[in-house]
Design a protein that fits this description.
This protein is mainly α. About 70% of the residues lie in helices and about 0% in strands. The chain contains 21 helices and four strands. It has helices at about 5-10, 10-30, 35-55, 55-60, 95-120, 125-140, 145-165, 170-205, 210-215, 220-240, 250-255, 255-280, 285-310, 315-340, 345-370, 385-390, 390-405, 410-425, 430-455, 470-485, 490-505, and strands at about 80-85, 90, 370, 375. A two-stranded antiparallel ribbon has the order 1-2. A two-stranded antiparallel sheet has the order 3-4. Helix 2 packs antiparallel against helix 6 (about 125-140), helix 7 packs antiparallel against helix 8 (about 170-205) and helix 8 (about 170-205) crosses helix 11.
Length: about 500
C-alpha cells in the first residue's frame, strides 16, 4: 500500500475514524450522548460528501491513470479515476456519483430518525455509528475492483444492517425482521461466495481488469456460467428483485420506520451500483448470458411490485412493493446497456436512482409524522382526512405519490421517461411497454392514498409534526421533486459523465 491509495480512499478512511471516535464517545457518556453522536454523524457524512467532491484537489499528481478510449467517446482522462490498494479499489466518476447519493441519503435518514428515536425511547449512540459503518461498506462496494473487496464491502454493510433491522429489541416484529434479514442475507452471502469461487477456479484471478479479458470467450465454460448465476442471484437479493424479494415486505414492515427509510434509499442504491459494475466490467464478456437473467428479473419485479401493492393495508408494505417495482424499472436501464453497449441506459439508471432516493425518503418522512397520542400508525386507513387536519403534510405526500407514479412535471416522471426512452432506443420496445403498463397499475395504489387523504372524513387528530430534522427533510425532498423540472441539467450531465466513465473505463 502506498500514499496514493490512502488519498483515493480518503472519504472512507475519514468515516471509519469518525465512527470509531463517536463509538468511544458514546461508550464513555452512555445514552445521554446519543443526540450529540447523531448530530456529529450527520456532520461527518456531509463532510465526507465535500471530500468526495473535492477529492481531486487532495490527490497526488501521479494517482490518475489514463486509459484508452476504446468506445470512441470523448472523455477527459480524469473521468477514469484511479485504482488503489493493489487494484482492489477504484475511484472513478461513476463511484463518486453513487457515493454522493449514499452519503446524502444516509445523512437525511439520520435526520429523519431524530424525533422517532426520542419518542420511542430508542436514542442510543450505537444507531448513528451503525449507519456510518453501513455507509462505509456501501462506499467500498461501489468502488470495488476485485471480487474479494466487493465481498468485504458487502459484508460490512450487511452486518450493520442486520443489527439496525432488529434495533427495537423489545418489539417482536422488529426482532423477526432482523432475524429474517440475517438468515436470508447469510444465504445470499453464501451464494455470492460460491459464485466467486467458481469464477476464480476457472480464471485464476479475482481482479476485475484481468477477468474482462479472460471471460471474453465465444463459448465460456459451464462452471463460469454457474458462477455468474450465483453472483446474479445474490445481488438480486440485495436489490430485492423478484424472485429474491421475499424478505422485503416483512423487513420493511417490521424494522423501525427510520431504518426502513434508510434501507429503501442508501443500501438499494449501493447494491444497484454494485450490480451494474460487476455486470459491465468483469462479466462484460458474458453479456449474452446475464442479459437473460436481467430481463427476467426486471419484468418479474415490475409485474409483482405493481400488482402486489394493490392489496396492501400497511403503508410500509405498500412502499416495499413499490420499491420492488422501481428496482424493475432501474434494471430496464441496465438491460439496455447489455443490448446496445451505449451510455443511454446507464445514464437513465443513474438519473432514476438519484430521483428515487429523494422521493422515497420524503414518503417515509410523512409516515414518521403519523402519530397519535405518542404512538406510531402505519395503516393506510390512518391517512383518512389528513388534508383537513394537516394540509401541508398531505400536500407533501401528494407530491411524493404523484412523483412515484411518474406524473409530469414532477421529478419521478423524468426518471421513467429516460428509462423507457433508452429501452426504445435499444430495441427493447416490449420491455418499455411492460414498464408503462405496470406504472399505470402501480398508480392505482398511489391514487388510493391521495383519495383517502382528500376525500374521506378524518379520524382522531394526529400529533403535531416534530420540529427541525423531520420538517427539514420533508421540505427539501418535496421541493426537489417539485422544482426538478426547472433545473434538470446538473443531474442529467453528471449522470452522463458517470456513465461514460464506467462504460469506457
Amino acid at each position: 500500500m502506498n500514499v496514493e491509495s490512502l488519498y483515493a480512499a480518503f472519504p472512507e478512511i475519514f468515516l471509519v475514524v469518525a465512527s470509531m471516535l463517536l463509538l468511544l464517545y458514546g461508550a464513555m457518556r452512555g445514552d445521554k450522548a446519543a443526540p450529540m453522536v447523531s448530530l456529529l454523524a450527520v456532520v461527518a457524512l456531509l463532510g465526507a460528501s465535500v471530500m468526495e467532491l473535492r477529492l481531486d484537489a487532495f490527490m497526488l499528481p501521479g494517482i490518475s491513470i489514463a486509459m484508452p478510449d476504446s468506445a470512441g467517446l470523448s472523455i477527459p482522462s480524469h473521468c477514469y479515476g484511479c485504482e488503489a490498494f493493489h487494484h482492489m479499489f477504484v475511484h472513478d466518476v461513476f463511484a463518486r456519483f453513487v457515493k454522493l447519493i449514499l452519503l446524502v441519503a444516509s445523512a437525511l435518514s439520520l435526520m429523519l430518525s431524530w424525533s422517532y428515536l426520542w419518542q420511542e425511547n430508542l436514542e442510543k449512540p450505537e444507531y448513528p455509528v451503525l449507519v456510518l459503518l453501513a455507509t462505509v461498506g456501501m462506499m467500498l462496494m461501489v468502488s470495488a475492483s476485485d471480487l474479494l473487496s466487493l465481498y468485504v464491502g458487502l459484508e460490512l454493510q450487511s452486518l450493520a444492517l442486520y443489527v439496525l433491522a432488529a434495533f427495537r429489541r423489545d418489539d417482536a416484529k422488529s426482532s423477526e425482521a432482523g432475524l429474517k434479514y440475517f438468515v436470508l442475507g447469510a444465504l445470499s452471502s453464501g451464494l455470492i461466495l460460491y459464485g466467486i469461487s467458481l469464477i476464480y477456479g476457472y480464471a485464476g484471478t479475482t481482479q476485475f481488469a484481468p477477468l474482462v479479458k479472460i471471460l471474453s470467450l465465444p463459448q465460456p465454460p459451464l462452471g463460469v456460467i454457474f458462477g455468474l448465476v450465483f453472483i446474479c442471484a445474490a445481488l438480486a437479493f440485495k436489490v430485492s428483485a423478484v424472485p429474491f424479494h421475499m424478505w422485503t415486505p416483512d423487513v420493511y414492515e417490521g424494522a423501525p420506520t427510520p431504518v426502513t427509510a434508510f434501507f429503501s434509499a442508501a443500501p438499494k442504491a449501493a447494491a444497484l451500483a454494485l450490480f451494474t459494475r460487476v455486470l459491465l466490467i468483469p462479466l462484460s464478456g458474458l453479456a449474452h448470458q446475464w442479459m437473460q437473467i436481467v430481463l427476467f428479473i426486471a419484468v418479474a419485479s415490475m409485474l409483482l411490485g405493481s400488482f402486489g401493492g394493490l392489496v396492501q393495508a400497511n403503508i410500509k408494505r405498500l412502499l416495499a412493493y413499490s420499491s420492488i417495482a422501481n428496482v424493475g424499472y432501474m434494471l430496464v436501464g441496465l438491460a439496455t446497456v447489455g443490448v446496445s453497449g451505449g451510455t443511454d441506459g446507464l445514464q437513465a439508471l443513474l438519473i432514476y436512482l438519484a430521483i428515487y432516493f429523494v422521493n422515497t425518503l420524503g414518503a417515509f418522512g410523512v409516515i414518521l409524522c403519523l402519530r397519535r397520542d405518542g404512538r406510531s400508525f402505519e395503516q393506510i386507513e390512518d391517512l383518512k382526512g389528513l388534508a383537513k387536519t394537516h394540509p401541508m403534510l398531505s400536500l407533501a405526500m401528494v407530491i411524493f405519490m404523484f412523483s412515484l407514479a411518474g406524473v409530469p412535471p414532477l421529478a419521478g416522471f423524468f426518471g421513467k421517461y429516460f428509462i423507457f426512452l433508452a429501452a426504445v432506443k435499444a430495441g427493447l420496445v416490449p420491455l418499455a411497454v411492460i414498464g408503462v403498463l405496470t406504472s399505470v397499475v402501480a398508480a392505482a395504489y398511489y391514487l388510493r392514498l391521495i383519495k383517502l387523504m382528500y376525500f374521506d372524513e378524518p379520524g382522531a387528530t394526529l400529533d403535531p409534526v416534530p420540529e427541525f430534522g423531520l420538517r427539514a427533510v420533508l421540505t427539501v425532498t418535496a421541493l426537489v421533486m417539485l422544482l426538478f423540472v426547472f433545473w434538470p441539467a446538473p443531474l442529467i450531465d453528471s449522470a452522463l459523465t458517470a456513465a461514460k466513465s464506467l462504460i469506457s473505463g
